[in-house]
Amino acid sequence: MNLTVRQLQAFVLVSRLGSFTKAAHAMHVTQSALSLLVRELETGLGTRLVDRTTRSVSVTAVGREFLASAERILDDIGHAIANVDQWVAHQRGRVVVAAPLVLSGTLLPPLVADFRAGHPGIELVLKDSLPDEVLPQVRSGAADLGIGTFRRTEAELQHTQLFEESLVAIFPVDHPFARARRLPWRRLEQERVLTLPRGSVFRELAERGCNAAGMALEPAGEATYVGTLIGLVSAGQGVGIVPGYATALADRRVIAWKPLQDPVVRREVSIVHRATVAVSPAAQAFMDFVLEHTGIRRLRRASAKD
What's the predicted TM-score (pTM) here? Predict the structure, then answer.
């Protein structure tokens, strides 16, 4: 049995309006085309739904029973189409975003709040994670999007850059570095340097800066978490090398920082998703939102420096 939506629409309109002529006009078809739709529906069901005379149309007993079901089916289809329209229009859906702890605690909270306010029908889940846990979540589909600093060696992932920022040195507020106008990497040579562990993308960037300055990076200590590194610096255990956004976690009364120069080493913050899977409308809406708002922040920072 192959019933169609147009057959159901034709029958419901004939039943409601009591006229093939009026129903045909409402559907923008000829009367003969509408009569054919109703006959095809009756043939498919194996029973007469409408009694026709030259002057009137009446719904049979079976037709009256079927009418409620036909109306419910059309209502369900209408709701389903409306839901799809809302999904496509970025008004409904669910998106899971994985990001490392630093960005989850600094960059993303205001963006998440603003996005939720503007898209109340979309459920946004932020999964704060260790840096090396972000990409596995995206690859497995546990997260729709990942935000962070990643090596561009994953062919199955699509990268879109959000912004760049330089690595900075953090130190106690009473450290001599606080009075320096500039802070070249070479100034770290006589310091107890604290870094993130080997294997971290930030450790690689720190080693790149030291090597370019003609010195070897020999850390006096390591910490898996940026927050721990900041805590060690606060306790006077050395000078830390961290990404710029991490300074938002530091207590300005205790910690100061300066960009490392000669050379300036920047890290790229990107948003990633699986290249082989279509991005959902909800995820696309969040991507567009983050791209727009991080762009605005870059412009504001550039204006502040001019």
Answer: 0.67
